[in-house]
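Re: folding output
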Amino acid sequence: MDLTSQLLQKHKKRILEIWMQNQLADVMLRDDLMTNDELRRQSEELLEALARAVTSGNLDNIYSSDYEQITEILSDISITRARQGFSPRETGMFVLSLKQAINAVYEQELSDKPAELYREISTINKLLDNLSIITFETYIKGREEVILRQTDEINEISTPVIRVWEGILALPIIGTLDSARTQIVMENLLQEIVNTGSSIAILDISGVPAVDSLVAQHLIKTVSATRLMGAECIISGIRAEIAQTIVHLGIDLSNIKTKASLAHALQLAFSMRNVEVRKINRTPMSGLGR
């Protein structure tokens, strides 16, 4: 057993206590996201795994089977913290603060042996720096998963299909319309056409900030898919600047019904369904309360 392994095995409890003190003293400690008991459990589990890993004598290759358990622990902690809302700094400091604790113990134990002290600190620092890289890499993957899930949820929420009248659906689109979102729009709209048996769908783009050739192509694809399902499509929310852009780009929407506002689109939809909507003037009833 080399000196590094001996020191870790002999002073695990002292290293753990110093490590916990360092973490609890950090002004950035997120005790709102994790209890002190859970922090101690994670710290103790990681330190135990590290002490077992270094007994192999392998202090360089953290991707070997010797470090399989410790990398699994770090990956689990990093992904969990990413999902809980910890910052990259807070997650990275979990490992880096362990390095400070080990260095403090080494300095006490080898104060009269400067050459050994330098060698051991350099070795353990390099090892923990490599482990911290794994922590950051896994954290980034965890955050990417969270972002992708949130993006999918936002896209689902931001593309609601509303049944405004018997046989008439409306789908207000807010924000940029890209390929991925167009797919969601089409899927939601086509499914609702099947569910309700509607014959008219209104795509309202009042909330779309700008229409370029790509957005226009996405709209045309949606209209075509709607027609294949046996429904007619109306595009509303064509503002003056959008109309100018469409003309300037040479995009042909002549075979698609378009209206300036959702109200005008509804009027057209009603007429296509032979529905008449009239305003009724009601005469106030006299003699109430007598």
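--- second protein (sequence, then structure) ---
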Amino acid sequence: MKEQIQAFIFDLDGVITDTAEYHYLAWKAIADELGIEFTRAFNENLKGVSRMDSLKLLLSQAKDRREYTAQEMEELADRKNKLYQTMIEKVTPSDILPGINELLSEIKRRGIKLGLASASKNAFFVMERLGLKSEFGAIVDSSKIANNKPDPEVFLKAAEMLQVDPAYCIGVEDAVSGVQAIKSAGMFAVAIGDREAFPHADLVLERTSQLDFAQIATAFASAANGN
């Protein structure tokens, strides 16, 4: 059963690299500008969420609610993105999270395809900065889909581009909405984080350094055999 794995499809932030701090700082700058309290704890709610939906969540924290026009919303989201883009220019291959290079090498050695499914519109730029863009047969970001996670579209689109069967794909995520998307796509879900947060994942690891091909393949085979 191990040989039946056709592709690994990764999330970007929190899995391959961690630009979450830059997202936080950019959103914090927008919140400060609007006089809205924005904490690191609340920032966790924005993980795996599209830019516009993240902005709506941020604005929901305002003490004095006001209505924003569509143009004003676009301008705020665009301003946040420009702040984020300036920050991620600092990203280098040294920012690849522990264990990822080793796992990618093993996946490639076995002839298994690689895909990326990200909610970020900056996925191509970040992957290029990391030196990984050419290694992935499919990179799907929010600009290529109509529905964001937890909808499975981003993972299904990556599988379609790779020409693989979703049932034989491993999805790797660090967000609850991402794991929901993987499972809805009919894929095997590997979650990075606290076990309690991911009751529906097929395999949960605390950190990326624990990602091991043999362990994932064995768990996939066991699930495929109904064990």
